[in-house]
Every structure is written in structure tokens, then in C-alpha cells.
């Protein structure tokens, strides 16, 4: 990589003292990137874009929102009806959250398919999981703010999850609430934290990118970069590709904002919170449904089927443990997966396990939206079992026994052998 | 290197003393940091005005047999039910061995007819249905929590579903036949 020479005297003066332009040049312009990235590599920059949109629309909403239990609901209605373009900003923020999760799920499943979590990108992956967890916390806190029925009862159910912590559970829940139930002090606190966490995510994204740029992006073949021939500069090749993807994304995103703004929402959240009446069917936002299904699927002796432990783990505790484990286990994937080959394109058995796991997760999502009874409960239990079977048994085993396909010699040979023998990166 | 008088002094450094100073500084610093953090943490515990929420007093003379009312106490709903003879009999007939959280009906009421409960599911805090005539009451004819399907019996005990414990009985006392103070 060459050190840029700056012509503009102001830029030159600044860069000599604070090499910020050199930094940008290295990390976003020259940054050598595998020449064969496909569209699944668009989602990272898209996530960055959505984060900025969420922060911008959120700050503007805060200018008219009131974090008080008796005023919050009405202040949101005022934003919708009276504030100039308030409806637009709120719908952007609401649907932006759903888009954020759609894109982050695609981003994560991209990583699972191409083995992006493997050595040397383990920390990059773990920071990603931390970002994901912080996103979930932020979304949960934000959903409480409009103080509708789902806000209130969602907050009640989720905060109560912490009551399973041994000995201190109730003390912690009281502390989370700042009272004896979800109430005004809870709402105030949640607003404060909802404002804070996106900035923490912002910081985490920087660390995520730092780790990314240390070893560079993975790529569809999953093999390491071997020389200059395998790479092209980030700009203009990937800036253009990312911009094209962004345009495509905006069509979908704004399509929801303008034509189906409440598609992802629950009508019950347009009813003001009532601490005396639980809606007959409470469901979390769609992006939490698979975890919600796991939470409810777990029967009394799930963790300790053979009764080895001296204490009985009740369904409530076991459900919470399994729910958190379902996410935290992903952080252990770099060590659970014993295969040296990254990309599923060269792993015939893992390829199928990957798709079954993906479908199983979607099934869990559907189960999470249904009452935990009868056939749904049974399906939920089987899917939960399979989720853990995949991560804890199948993934470690398949890496040992699978016969992988031969890997290409290099990234460039994998690209060029399918097209002509021509070395123009524009065909990549 | 030239040996100076300073280097000679170095040889007489007392490492034990230095370690002691270092570790005591760390310790005092850590204790200080914790002490400084506590007000921030404790500020999120219930404040005085929240704690001071007075007890709730109610006149139950207009409640009919087989009818329930819901009162508010510390921001939580309290279920007060005037039980029918059948409900009492059913509640008393259950063997303790059949219960997930064994407790006899007698330990849960002061007067057989009046059942007083915190109306919050012990699973994850939803309000069970069963207070009004037409409500779903679950398989045991008491209350049913819609959130994840917990069934409570006519003594408010958990009988089926994910909730681990019986509905709580709040502290309360009767000042006369029909006047009750909760809290
Ligand atoms: C706000 C959330 C996030 C943002 C803004 C973000 C941003 C990015 C960006 C810009 C890239 C580079 C472009 C790309 O490869 O797509 C990237 C790569 C990556 N991200 Fe994220 N990310 C986020 C969340 C996550 C999460 C939740 C995970 C995993 C659980 C994750 C795992 C990864 C991995 C493994 C890579 C390297 C992929 C590769 O090179 O193949 N990220 N991220
Ligand atoms: S909160 Fe009542 S069953 Fe879960």
C-alpha cells in the first residue's frame, strides 16, 4: 500500500498533525479486498448505514417524545399527527429497526455459510455477537417507549426473566424496575439507556472493523489471499457495489415506510399501557420470535434429563438458560466447528446442515408467534432440541468426518478459470 | 555505563515495602471506586416516594359470593375473591403431593371465604385471567395466564404450565367482617 501524498494545503497541514486522511485512504479507498466478493458481502456496510439512520431519526424523535408514563403514549400520537413529518420519522425509525434485524440476520448467516468466524476472525465474530446482543437490548428498550400494551407487557415479561437468577433474582428485578412493577421510573430509565446503547454499538462497530481490517475480509471460496492478484482496491470497486446494494435496499425499506408502515408492528401497541389487563396473546417483535420459542419450549427437566444434578431446574430457569445459551453458543462456534475448510461450497455435508439449521431457525420463529400448546409446543420442543444438537453435536462431528471438496489454488485462479484468461479485475 | 551514587542507592531498594505500598494503593483505590459506584447503582433502586406507597384499604361488603374484585397495591393488582362453597371444598380436597409448590389451602387464607392474592403470574409477570364471569379460568377453575399457559386452582396454586410458584399472598388484615387493609 502506498502512502498518499496530499496536494491540498489544508489537508496536508491537518494530515501531518492528525493522519486522519491517510487513515481514511487506507481503510476505505486503497484497502485491498478479495476480488471475488459476492452480494452477501454488502450487508456489513448496509448495517453501518442503518445504524446512522437509526441514530439520526432517534435523535429527532427525542425532540418531541416525553418519557413519562402518563404522557408518553400521547406524545407519540402527537408526533404521528401534529409534528411536521413526525409520522415519517417515526415510521423510518420503526421499520428501520426491523430492517436492521433482517440485514444483521443475513450478515450472520453469510458468516455461517462461508465460515467467516474461523481462525483468524474469531474475535471479529465475537465482537459481532456482542453487537447483535446490544442491538437486541436497544430494540427491546426502544419498544417500551411508546407505552402501548405490548410495550408494557413485553417489558414486564422480559425483565422478569432476570428473576431466575439464584438468590438475587428478585432484588435485581426490583432494581431494574426501580419499583415494584414496570412503571414511570422504569420508563425513564429505559429511555436513557435506549439513547445510550446505539453509541456503544457505534464504538463496537469500530472495533469490529479494526479486527476486520487486520486480516481482511473472508471471501466465497474461504481460502486466504495469496498475493496482489487476489485483491482489488476497495474504491471504486466495492464502494460502487455497496452503493448499488444500498439503492436496492432503500427501495424495499421505503416501500415498507410508505406503503405498509405497520406491517411489522402489533395493533395492540396502539392501545395505551394498562397494568391491570394483559392482552390475550402477547408476542414479542418478530426478530425475537425464535428465542421466545426456545424460552417457552423447555419443559421441567430439559437440561438435566437424567436427574444428575442435586437440584431440580424448573422449566422457568431452564427456559431462560436455553434462550441465552442459544445466542452465546454462537460465540463459541469458532471452537465448536472442527473443520479447517471455511466455505460451505467445499463442505458437502455441512452445506446441508447449514440449510437445515437455517430452516429450523425459521420454524422456531413461526412457533414463537403461536400459543405454546398442542402441536406448536411439540414442534417448538423438537426444533429447540435440533438447534442445540446442530451446534453441540453435529458441527463438532461433521468437521471430523466430512470429506471436503478440493479447494482452488488461489482466489484469482478460481475466478479466472470460469471466465476467460483475461486478468481485468472488472470481470471479477 | 558509569556507576553513579544513585545506582548504588538502588541496590538498597526494599521490594517488600514497595509491594506493600503498591498493593495497599490498589486496594484502597478499588474500595474507593466501589464506594463511589454505589450511589449510582442504588439510585436505580426504588426511591422513597415509591417505597412510601401506602397500604390499600377496601370495603368488601358489596362483593357477592363467587365474585372477584381487583385492587391496586404498590402498582400491582391484588385479586380478592369471595369463594363459593364448592370452590373452597375443591381447594381443600387436593392432596399436597399433587402440587408443584405444596401448600395447603388453610395456609393461604385467613378466612375460608376470602382468597386474597397478588394477581401476577409467578412465571414472567403477566396478569392471569379469571377475575370476570366470562373469563377463561383454566383447567382448574381458578385463573389462567394467557402469556405462556399457566393454570392456577381455586386457591391460586400453580397446577399446570411453566410458572414455578403459587400466586403470592400479600400481607393483609381484616379490621372487621368486610373491611380489609392490604400491605
Ligand atoms: C450493527 C451491526 C453490524 C455492523 C454495522 C457490521 C459491520 C460490518 C462490516 C462493514 C463488515 C465488512 C463488510 C462485510 O463483510 O459485509 C463486517 C464484517 C463482518 N461481520 Fe459485521 N457488522 C455488524 C454486526 C455483526 C454481527 C452481529 C456479526 C456476527 C454475529 C458480524 C460478523 C461479521 C463477520 C464475521 C465479518 C467478517 C466477514 C467476512 O469478511 O467474511 N457482524 N461487519
Ligand atoms: S407469565 Fe404467566 S405463564 Fe408466563
CATH architecture of the largest domain in chain A: Up-down Bundle
Class inferred from helices and paired strands of chain A: mainly alpha
Bin the helical content of chain A: 55-70%
User: What is the level-2 CATH architecture name of the largest domain in chain B?
Assistant: 3-layer Sandwich
CATH topology of the largest domain in chain B: Rieske Iron-sulfur Protein
Identify the CATH homologous superfamily of the largest domain in chain A: Cytochrome Bc1 Complex, Chain C
Q: Would you report the number of β strands of chain B?
A: 9
How can the largest sheet of chain A be summarized? 2 strands, antiparallel
- Specify the oligomeric state: heterodimer
Nearest-integer average pLDDT of chain A:
92
CATH T-level topology of the largest domain in chain A: Cytochrome Bc1 Complex, Chain C
| Strand order, sheet with most strands of chain A | 1-2
Shape, per Cα inertia axes of chain A: globular
Largest interface: A-B, 35 and 28 residues
CA distance, first residue to last residue of chain A: 21 Å
Low-confidence stretches of chain B: none
Radius of gyration of chain A: 24 Å
Largest sheet of chain B: 3 strands, antiparallel
Number of helices of chain B: 4
Sheet/helix structural class of chain B: alpha+beta
Radius of gyration of chain B: 29 Å
Task: Looking at this protein, list some descriptive labels.
heterodimer, A: 428 residues, mainly alpha, Cytochrome Bc1 Complex, Chain C, 62% helix, globular, B: 183 residues, 3-stranded antiparallel β-sheet, 4 helices, 26% helix, elongated, binds protoporphyrin IX containing FE, binds FE2/S2 (inorganic) cluster
Description:
- Chain A folds into 2 domains: 41-273, Cytochrome Bc1 Complex, Chain C, CATH 1.20.810.10; 283-412, no CATH class.
- Chain A has 428 residues and is mainly alpha-helical.
- Chain A has a two-stranded antiparallel sheet.
- Chain A starts with 8 loop residues before the first helix and ends in a 12-residue tail after the last helix.
- Chain A has helices spanning 9-17, 20-30, 43-62, 72-81, 86-114, 122-144, 149-160, 169-177, 184-215, 234-259, 289-297, 315-331, 333-336, 348-368, 374-401, 411-416; strands at residues 32-34, 231-233.
- The longest helix of chain A has 32 residues, at 184-215.
- Chain B has 2 domains: 5-42; 51-182, 3-layer Sandwich (Rieske Iron-sulfur Protein).
- Chain B has helices at residues 5-10, 15-42, 48-51, 85-93; strands at residues 56-59, 68-73, 76-82, 114-118, 143-145, 150-152, 158-160, 172-174, 179-182.
- Chain B is elongated and about 90 Å long.
- The mean pLDDT of chain B is 88.
- At the A-B interface, helix 7, helix 8 and helix 12 of A face loops of B.
- Bound molecules: protoporphyrin IX containing FE (HEM) and FE2/S2 (inorganic) cluster.
- Protoporphyrin IX containing FE binds at residues 41, 43-45, 47-48, 51, 104, 107-108, 111, 114, 116-117, 121, 124-125, 128-129, 131-132, 135, 201, 205, 208, 212, 217-218 of chain A.
Amino acid at each position: 500500500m502506498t502512502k498518499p501524498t496530499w496536494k491540498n494545503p489544508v489537508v496536508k497541514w491537518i494530515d501531518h498533525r492528525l493522519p486522519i486522511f491517510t487513515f481514511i485512504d487506507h481503510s476505505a479507498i486503497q484497502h485491498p479486498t478479495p476480488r471475488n466478493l459476492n452480494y452477501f458481502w454488502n450487508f456489513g456496510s448496509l448495517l453501518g448505514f442503518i445504524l446512522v439512520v437509526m441514530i439520526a431519526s432517534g435523535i429527532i424523535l427525542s425532540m418531541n417524545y416525553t418519557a413519562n408514563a402518563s404522557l408518553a403514549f400521547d406524545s407519540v400520537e402527537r408526533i404521528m399527527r401534529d409534528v411536521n413529518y413526525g409520522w415519517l420519522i417515526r415510521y423510518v425509525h420503526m421499520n428501520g429497526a426491523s430492517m436492521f434485524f433482517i440485514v444483521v440476520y443475513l450478515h450472520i448467516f453469510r458468516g455461517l455459510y462461508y465460515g467467516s468466524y474461523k481462525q483468524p476472525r474469531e474475535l471479529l465474530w465475537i465482537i459481532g455477537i456482542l453487537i447483535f446482543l446490544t442491538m437486541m437490548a436497544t430494540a427491546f428498550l426502544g419498544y417500551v417507549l411508546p407505552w402501548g400494551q405490548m410495550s408494557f407487557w413485553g417489558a414486564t415479561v422480559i425483565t422478569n426473566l432476570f428473576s431466575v437468577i439464584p438468590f438475587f433474582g428478585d432484588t435485581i428485578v426490583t432494581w431494574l424496575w426501580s419499583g415494584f412493577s414496570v412503571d414511570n421510573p422504569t420508563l425513564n430509565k429505559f429511555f436513557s439507556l435506549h439513547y445510550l446503547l446505539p453509541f456503544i454499538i457505534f464504538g463496537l462497530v469500530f472495533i469490529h472493523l479494526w479486527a476486520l481490517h487486520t486480516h481482511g475480509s473472508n471471501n466465497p471460496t474461504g481460502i486466504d489471499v495469496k498475493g496482489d492478484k487476489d485483491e482489488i482496491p476497495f474504491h471504486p470497486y466495492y464502494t460502487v457495489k455497496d452503493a448499488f446494494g444500498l439503492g436496492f435496499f432503500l427501495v424495499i425499506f421505503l416501500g415498507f415506510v410508505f406503503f405498509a408502515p405497520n406491517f411489522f408492528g402489533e395493533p395492540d401497541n396502539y392501545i395505551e399501557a394498562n397494568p391491570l389487563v394483559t392482552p390475550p396473546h402477547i408476542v414479542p417483535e418478530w426478530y425475537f420470535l425464535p428465542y421466545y420459542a426456545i424460552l417457552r419450549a423447555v419443559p421441567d427437566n430439559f437440561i438435566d434429563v437424567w436427574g444428575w444434578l442435586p437440584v431440580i431446574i424448573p422449566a422457568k430457569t431452564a427456559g431462560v438458560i436455553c434462550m441465552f445459551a442459544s445466542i452465546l453458543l454462537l460465540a463459541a462456534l469458532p471452537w465448536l466447528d472442527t473443520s479447517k475448510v471455511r466455505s460451505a461450497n467445499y463442505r458437502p455435508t455441512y452445506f446441508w446442515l447449514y440449510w437445515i439449521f437455517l430452516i429450523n431457525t425459521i420454524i422456531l420463529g413461526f412457533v414463537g408467534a403461536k400459543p405454546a400448546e398442542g402441536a406448536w409446543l411439540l414442534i417448538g420442543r423438537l426444533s429447540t432440541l435440533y438447534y442445540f444438537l446442530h451446534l453441540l453435536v453435529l458441527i463438532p462431528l461433521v468437521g471430523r468426518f466430512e470429506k471436503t471438496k478440493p479447494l482452488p489454488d488461489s482466489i484469482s485462479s478460481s475466478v479466472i478459470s470460469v471466465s476467460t484468461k483475461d486478468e481485468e479485475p472488472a470481470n471479477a | 555505563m558509569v556507576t553513579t551514587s544513585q545506582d548504588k542507592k538502588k541496590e538498597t531498594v526494599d521490594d517488600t515495602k514497595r509491594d506493600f505500598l503498591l498493593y495497599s494503593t490498589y486496594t484502597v483505590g478499588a474500595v474507593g471506586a466501589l464506594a463511589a459506584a454505589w450511589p449510582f447503582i442504588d439510585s436505580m433502586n426504588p426511591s422513597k416516594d415509591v417505597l412510601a406507597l401506602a397500604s390499600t384499604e377496601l370495603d368488601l361488603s358489596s362483593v357477592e359470593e363467587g365474585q372477584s374484585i381487583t385492587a391496586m397495591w404498590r402498582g400491582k393488582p391484588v385479586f380478592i375473591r369471595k369463594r363459593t362453597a364448592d370452590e373452597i371444598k375443591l381447594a381443600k380436597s387436593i392432596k399436597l403431593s399433587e402440587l408443584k409448590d405444596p401448600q395447603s389451602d388453610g395456609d393461604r387464607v385467613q378466612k375460608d371465604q376470602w382468597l386474597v392474592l397478588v394477581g401476577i403470574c409467578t412465571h414472567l409477570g403477566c396478569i392471569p385471567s379469571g377475575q370476570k364471569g366470562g373469563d377463561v379460568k383454566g383447567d382448574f377453575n381458578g385463573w389462567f395466564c394467557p402469556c405462556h399457559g399457566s393454570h392456577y386452582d381455586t386457591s391460586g396454586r400453580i397446577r399446570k404450565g411453566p410458572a414455578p410458584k403459587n400466586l403470592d399472598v400479600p400481607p393483609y388484615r381484616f379490621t372487621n367482617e368486610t373491611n380489609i387493609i392490604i400491605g
